[in-house]
Structures are given as structure tokens and as C-alpha cells.
Amino acid sequence: MVPAWLWLLCLSVPQALPEAQLAERYVEVPENYGGNFPLYLTKLLLPREEAEGHIVLSGNSGIAAEGLFAVDPESGFLLVTRALDREEQAEYRLQVTLETEEGRVLWGPQLVLVHVKDENDQASGHQATAIVDVSVVESTWLPLDPVHLAENLKVPYPHQIAQVHWSGGNVHYHLESQPPGPFDVDAEGKLYVTRELDREAQAEYLLLVWAQNTRGEDYTEALQLQVVVMDENDNAPLCPSPGASINIPELSSPGTEVTRLLAEDLDAPGSPNSHVVYRLLSPEPEEGTEGSSFELDSTSGSVTLGPRPLHAGQNFLIQVLAVDLGGAEGGLSSTCEVAVTITDINDHAPEFITSQIEPISLPEDSKPGTLVATLMATDADLEPAFRLMDFAIEAGNMDGTFGLDWEPDSGHVQLRLLRNLSYEAAPSHKLVVVVRSVAELVGPNPGPGATATVTLLVERVVPPPKLDQESYEASVPVSTPAGSLLLTIQPSDPMSGPLRFSLVNDSEGWLCIKEVSGEVHTARPLQGARPGDRYTVLVEAQDAGEPTLNTSATLVIHFLKAPSAPTLTPVPSRHLCTPRQNHGVVVSGPSEDPDQTNGDSPYSFALGPNPTVQRDWRLQALNGSHAYLTLALHWVEPGEHVIPVVVSRNGRMWQLQVRVIVCRCNMERQCMRKVGRMKGMPTKLSAVGILVGTLTAIGIFLILIFTHLTLARKKDLDQPVDSVPLKAAI
């Protein structure tokens, strides 16, 4: 049987160069191969750097699913797993690709045509015999020891570093570098480095060398040669990229870490070439001062605060020298810079510029919103957020009479009036305004300057009296009798002080006004007044407590035609129960009105102007002709009451006198009247006298009897014994 490797050497088609690797390959395989399986057919030039992909093999007749062919992912060889039969299938057309998990093609497709070579496996009556000579020689394809090369080596290039040898003939060598590097191999197997190496770019290389035949097929596995690049101190320490300025709050304690410089040296880690130490260049301590603002740990590169205090707003540029070789002579160095800003903290409490405000006078009639005073406060902090202030009235504003108004970013606060002042309630006010920082305060508590005292003196203002109307009008018939109530003048504020009323320029003397109540009546009959005329007088009102304060209003009387006298419906006496119950008296208007043309015009009912009547009674309209009179109070003194009711209609007025008897009632709402003494019957006093006299006489009679018995017994006891006669025995 012919060896398998000999079949492969004889039957394989020369492989294409890498730049033509996608050209279709042709492979012949003898049918009914009797050697070991799998049988390697040809090597595919799969890219070694695409390790993340997977190999996909496809072809005709479903051969990929049957597992007849496969690709070794380690070596890249296309292999067949069992013997082929040309009479079953003479050719196989395969396609190989390298794809990602998402199906993206990384390499390929590589087309491979596998031809099954016919063998004389069918009986034909002919036989042939062949003799093959096989010789065994010693293998020189031996592993190589690692090679150490100094970086930046100053020698002529290419520079030989090793040599390999294949003991057989007809061989050429192929070299690959992982990762790719400046290496090459010649026809004699000498390995060269073609230029200077840089350890920082690549510290190690793995060289793979194959011995191949003229068709590019490997005789055996590749030899591996490890190339180690020796380090030289050719890299200065690299400072971190300068970032934004580092903010350190003021009042930070000494020893607080500002930053930690980690200079990177690209030379070999752990070697003296990458051993970096640090030196502080600036800021240097000022002359005449003790301690420095910053301190540096030469080993770790940690920059910390020194004992010298720092203040908000200061800016520093810290310069640090980073030296390799542990700071020894000949070491490379770099200067690192770090910007540091001392930031503000809220360590200053706001204070008023003036803590005592001189007394301020303000009239008590000042309107709400009036500016009382403007206070100014300052804050020594620099940060705008720490200068925001909050104001409040801490004392003297229990009733909320005052308020504060300020802008959030302003140090001015306005004290304003929110409610009316009252001299009688408080002739003066002493307000304490406090200012606080909106942000949380760090450091000492606020001092005495955080409060301001404002003293306000209230000036007493007595306003003139004001009536409920600026002018008054009343319409009365010319036949209105004397004493008729026309209207009532009242102050606009019922809670104001009492007023004294009087009439001015009442030339006819027709009117009079009650000084206290303000009721305007007709003083006499309106003789001489004609319908359609107007009569104007002036009503003057003075403050009872301050006569100098007064006001006036005009009163215009319109005279109407005297109405025809209507027939008033007499109101019979009725009784109402006290305590009040749910019933009353129905009052009707005049039964006849000969001058009334519109019979549908309603009547108006009102109680007379007597305050007691208006307090004790209530009158409600039922309809246009009747009203309902009831008790207004729960209790009214029992007795007969006459209630004046004023009835008006179309400018005419009538007055009804309604008699009502108020009494206690029983359960049936029947009036229980007081009963007088009956004739011939004793009164209560006489009955009591008779009873007392009788009892006194009986008592005297009993006293006499007991006295008599007591004296008789005493007389018997005083007689001698022998003077008592013996009783004769019978």
C-alpha cells in the first residue's frame, strides 16, 4: 500500500499564494483509501487573527451534514473522514467560509473541488507489481531555545538570530510571526530580524517556521521560536493628562489628600527603568513663613495639604518632577502639573449693616403694603449660593401686622405693613428681624449682627365720621301728619363711635331729627307744601367724642299728592305663646283704596321704627296683601302689646296698630290667664291667719291644762302622812 503522505504529495495541486487565496482549489483523492483517517487533503490559508469566527463548510449533495469532509480549526487543513468511492460519486464541490455568530463573513468563500481518482478496484484480468524503496534518516527538525534581543539594538540589519534545518531534500522554509514582526527566513533556514525592536511596542514574539515542499505543503508541524525583547531605559515617565482644576474646600484639615500623581513609565514593569519617584518643585514655601501649603510623598506621589492655612479664591499650580531609575543619576524625568483651586464654604453668617434702626413714625391709617423700613445685610462668603439669605421677623409680630419682602439674591429686605395699625391696640411696635443663610452654615454660629431691631411708633389718626349714604331722598305725601318717620340716618360702620345728628337750613321747620338715633320725623303738618315740590335740608353728624370731627349729607324731600284715606282693616286681638312657639298673627293691608288704579300692585309691610319693637318682633310678607307677625325672641314678657306696622304702596304709607296678647300657654296652646280673687272666699293671707290663730289658741289651752295638773300634784306632795284619811275596808 502506498503511504498516505506520498499520495498527498503526488495528488495535491500547488496551492495559490496568499494574495490569490480565494481562487478555486483542486484536490485529487484516491478512492478506497486504506490508510488512517482522517485524511488531510490540503491546507487552507485561514487568517490567524480572526479567532473569534467559526468555520462553515458547505457543498453539494448534503455532504456537510453527513460529516464526510471537515476543516481542522487549529491547522487549517481540509480533511476527509472516511474512504471515498468514485463509482458512488466522482466529484465533490466544497465551499469554506469564516463567519461570526451573526453570520457576517470574515474570510472566504474558498471553493475546493475534490476529485475522486479512479483505482483499479474492479477485476479486469490484469495485475501489476511495484517496488518502493524507503530510507530512514535522522531528524534535524528540533525545537529552538528562546532568543533574547535588546531593544533599539544598533547592529547592521538584517541580523541573524537563529537557524533551522530540514533533513530531507527539496525543501523551502516558511515563517510567520505572532504578532507580525520584522522577521524573515532564507532558503538555508537562517532566521533574521530586519530592523530595531521596541519593547514598549511589543515585548515578545512567537515565530513559527514550516518546512514545505515545492507545492507549499508542510512536511511536519512548525517549529516555534520565542523572541524576547530586552528592556532599555528609553522612556521618560508620562504624567497624567492635565484635567480640570482640583477643588479643595477652604478650612480643610492638614493632611487632606489633594491628588495622587501616578506617572506611567512604559519601560519593563518592576525594573529600575520603570521605578518612578517624585519631587515637589512648586509652590515653594515663602520666606519668613513656617510650613508649606502642600506636601508630597516621593514614593506614592500623593499630594496633601500642609500646615499653612488656605483661603477661598486662591489658585495654585503644583509642579512635580517624576524621575525613573528610582531617582538615580541618568534617570529620565518629566514635570507634572496639577491646578488646585481653594473653593468657598459657607463659613460666614450674614449680618445686618445696621442692627438698630431709629424709631420710625407711621400714621395708624397707613394702608397695607406701606413700606416701613429697608434693611441691608452682607455675607463675606464668595460663592453666590452661600450668599443667598433668608429673612424672618423673630419677635414683635404675633398678629402678623408686618411682613418682609426681598429678592433671593439680594441683601436688601423691605419691612412692609400687611394689616391696619391701631393706636388703641398698640401705640408702638418693636420688631426683631433675623437674617440666616439659605445654605447650611459651616463653622461658628451667627453673631449678634444677625438680628436688627426696628422700633415703630403709631401716630393716632381719628377719621371723620362717615354716613352710610352721601345723600338721602324721601317721598312723602303732603298730608303726612306730624311725627311721621321719614327715614333714619346711620353711620357707615355700625361699630364706630356714637354720632350726634342735627339739621341745617330747615327753613320751614317741617322736619326734626333725633340727636342720637338719627331718625328724621315730620315736626309739624306740611302746610304750604305742594305736590311735586322738593325740599332740601342738610344733615350734619358730629363725633360724640371728638366734636371737631363731623360730616354732612343732603336730604331731599319729594312731596306727593295726598292719597285718599283708605279703610284700614281692624286687626283683632290675638294671643301668642311665650316661650315662642311656631305660630303668629296674620296682618292685612287696607281693605279699600279708591285712588289705586292698579289693584295688583303689592303692599309692603314693615315694623315701626321703635328699636324695642324691632328687637322683640319679626314681620314677614306672606303675599302682596298680607304679612305674618311672630315673636323674634324666645321669651317676651307676658301682657298686652301694641305693635305699630307701617304699610306702604305706590309711595303711600299707612300705620296699623296691631294688638297682641302674649301669655303662657298650655299643651293645647291655650292661653293661661292670671285669675283674680273670688267674692266671699278668703284670700291666701286670711286663710293663713285663721290657721295660725287656731293653732295658737289650741296651744294656749293645752298649756293651761298642763299647768293646772302640775300645781295639783305639788299640793298633794306637801301634806303630812298622818293627815291622809284611811280608806275604810269594805
TrEMBL record:
Protein's cellular compartments: Membrane
Pfam families: Cadherin
A GO biological-process term: cell-cell adhesion mediated by cadherin
Annotated TM spans: 685-706
Residue stretches in coiled coil: none
UniProt KW keywords: Calcium, Membrane, Repeat, Signal, Transmembrane, Transmembrane helix
Signal peptide: 1-18
Domain Cadherin, chain residue ranges per copy: 56-131, 167-239, 240-352, 354-467, 468-568
Classification via InterPro entries: Cadherin (IPR039808), Cadherin-like_dom (IPR002126), Cadherin-like_sf (IPR015919), Cadherin_CS (IPR020894)
GO CC annotation, single: catenin complex
Chief location of this protein within or outside the cell: membrane
GO molecular function: beta-catenin binding; cadherin binding; calcium ion binding
Name assigned to this protein: Cadherin 16
Organism: Rhinolophus ferrumequinum
Protein's gene: CDH16
